């Protein structure tokens, strides 16, 4: 188990489950305005009941004539088809009942199983129409700070949120023409983020500022007008990364009640990665927006504990979204904001909550801290990651991931004794984890190498065995320059003496 893989799994698992669950519910709701269960199966069911009465005599005659094996097999197959149709109808009716909280279901009437009718046929035009209106839900990928009841009221139908503003620019005009249009206002200097006001607010109306909480009605489409984002009450805080940069930049230029079109290049939305499975890479988006309200950011100390947990979890899921995209700085920022929300303190700095609530808050804090440590490691902030891992162990001393990270970081810093103790504790909790075994063996090698280096440097020279002492080097044989100089002086002296004596004679 490599630590990187473990970290990625931790940060992505819960967010994927959240998005998958929400998408499943959204698909059920999105089909209700198009095909209701009783609209699809009411006519075939009535036809089945009529044929049960009119074809009784024909069935008796056919039963006498078709006593062979082929006839019986055909009959069984038709019975199975009818049973499958009824089962499918009941399932769809139950799904519609769960989604709309309705009690009545016209498809619960009994149908005899000996009717011989074919399943209802669907026209190709109906299939194409349903595909054209289908959309991929994405409200689970943005942060919502409303109450639970209000969150369940989100609009997931295929109908437009702005039926009075179905203008050509929203429906058919190409994005290239909109980027070059003269009647659009540039929000950014690079002309890649543009806005057009459809309905202005009254004069002298204030605009929101960074750090405030806003409520926005929005729907977004790709260039082929596929709906990829839609929410009738999207609540987020400007500047905290709860939504993409395009929405944050645009909303601070809007006034309360204003309705506008927003055209955003991919670098202001989802960039080169896109957003699976609905938004491809480098895809610009066209939004239709209305600023419903804005207010100051709520203080976490003024919120009840369940609201703090819900908002903190949403912040952590947003951090997981950034972590999957390898945007580790944004992920770390989201985790820190989640930790600020996950507190049990009050205005007087006292904790006066029940033990169960405090344990639940601590569990969410442990998840955020572990994810924050993983992001800090990706950013190379090793001291901060070590401090965060110690915070995890303060809340949960048996947390294996925090023990492993702490032991590894201490080993890299050269604090071998504490690292060995920490890794042994992690190994005792999870003996089958290969990553802990590998880090322990690496730590043992580091300790052995350092001890050998220290012992070799501490040995005195006289303790070395004589047999290992290298023999003295012999001087190379040759005539010394001093000897040559002396001989030269003697020769010159004798020459001068002979010359003087000769001169005297």
Structure, explained:
It is a single chain. By secondary structure, this protein is of the alpha+beta class. It contains 17 helices and 6 strands. A hairpin with a 5-residue loop joins strand 3 and strand 4. Helix 13 runs antiparallel to helix 14. The protein starts with a helix and ends with a helix. The relative contact order is 0.07.
- Uncertain segments are 1-46, 67-75, 88-122, 124-141, 145-156, 461-468
How many helices does DSSP assign?
Answer: 17
Query: Could you give the order of the helices and strands?
Result: HHHHHHHHEEEEHEEHHHHHHHH
Please identify the structural class as seen in this structure. alpha+beta
Oligomer: single chain
- Proportion of helical residues: 40-55%
Features:
membrane; alpha+beta; TPR_rpt; single chain; six-stranded antiparallel sheet
Layout of strands and helices, then pairs:
Layout: H1 3-31, H2 37-54, H3 56-65, H4 69-100, H5 124-133, H6 148-152, H7 168-171, H8 175-179, E1 185-186, E2 193-199, E3 213-221, E4 227-237, H9 245-251, E5 259-264, E6 285-295, H10 305-324, H11 328-341, H12 355-378, H13 382-395, H14 400-413, H15 416-429, H16 434-458, H17 481-504
Antiparallel strand pairs: 1-2, 2-5, 3-4, 3-6, 5-6
EC number: 5.2.1.8
Region (Disordered): 51-82, 95-134, 449-469
TPR repeats: 366-399, 400-433
């Amino acid at each position: 188990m490599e630590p990187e893989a473990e970290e990625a799994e931790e940060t992505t698992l819960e967010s994927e489950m959240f998005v998958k669950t929400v998408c499943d519910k959204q698909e059920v709701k999105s089909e209700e305005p198009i095909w209701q269960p009783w609209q699809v199966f009411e006519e075939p069911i009535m036809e089945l009941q009529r044929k049960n009465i009119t074809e009784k005599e024909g069935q008796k005659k056919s039963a006498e004539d078709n006593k062979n094996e082929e006839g019986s097999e055909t009959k069984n197959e038709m019975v199975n088809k009818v049973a499958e149709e009824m089962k499918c109808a009941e399932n769809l009716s139950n799904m519609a009942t769960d989604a709309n909280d309705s009690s009545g279901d016209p498809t619960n009437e009994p149908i005899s199983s000996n009717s011989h009718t074919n399943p209802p046929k669907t026209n190709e035009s109906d299939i194409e129409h349903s595909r054209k209106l289908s959309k991929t839900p994405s409200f689970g990928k943005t942060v919502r700070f409303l109450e639970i009841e209000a969150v369940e009221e989100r609009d997931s139908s295929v109908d437009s949120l702005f039926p009075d503003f179905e203008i050509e620019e929203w429906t058919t005009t190409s994005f290239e023409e909109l980027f070059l249009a003269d009647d659009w206002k540039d929000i950014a200097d690079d002309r890649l983020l543009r806005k057009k006001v459809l309905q202005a607010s009254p004069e002298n109306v204030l605009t929101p500022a960074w750090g405030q909480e806003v409520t926005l009605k929005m729907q977004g489409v790709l260039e082929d007008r596929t709906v990829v984002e839609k929410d009738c009450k999207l609540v987020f805080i400007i500047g905290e990364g709860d939504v993409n940069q395009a929405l944050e930049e645009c909303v601070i230029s809007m006034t309360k009640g204003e309705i506008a079109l927003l055209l955003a290049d991919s670098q202001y939305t989802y960039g080169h990665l896109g957003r699976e499975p609905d938004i491809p890479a480098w895809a610009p988006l066209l939004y239709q927006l209305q600023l419903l309200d804005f207010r100051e950011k709520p203080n976490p100390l003024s919120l009840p504990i369940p609201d703090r947990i819900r908002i903190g979890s949403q912040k952590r899921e947003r951090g997981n979204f950034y972590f999957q995209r390898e945007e580790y700085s944004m992920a770390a920022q989201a985790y820190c904001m989640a930790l600020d929300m996950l507190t049990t303190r009050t205005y007087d700095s006292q904790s006066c909550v029940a033990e169960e609530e405090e344990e639940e808050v601590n569990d969410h804090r442990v998840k955020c801290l572990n994810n924050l440590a993983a992001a800090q490691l990706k950013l190379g902030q090793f001291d901060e990651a070590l401090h965060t891992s110690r915070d995890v162990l303060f809340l949960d001393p048996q947390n294996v991931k925090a023990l492993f990270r702490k032991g590894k970081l201490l080993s890299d810093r050269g604090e071998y004794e504490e690292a060995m103790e920490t890794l042994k504790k992690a190994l005792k909790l999870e003996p089958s984890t290969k990553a802990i075994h590998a880090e322990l063996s690496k730590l043992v090698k580091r300790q052995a190498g350092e001890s050998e280096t220290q012992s070799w440097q501490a040995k005195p020279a006289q303790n070395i065995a004589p047999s290992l002492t290298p023999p003295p080097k012999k001087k190379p044989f040759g005539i010394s320059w001093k000897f040559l100089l002396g001989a030269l002086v003697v020769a010159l002296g004798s020459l001068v003496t002979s010359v003087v004596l000769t001169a005297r004679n």
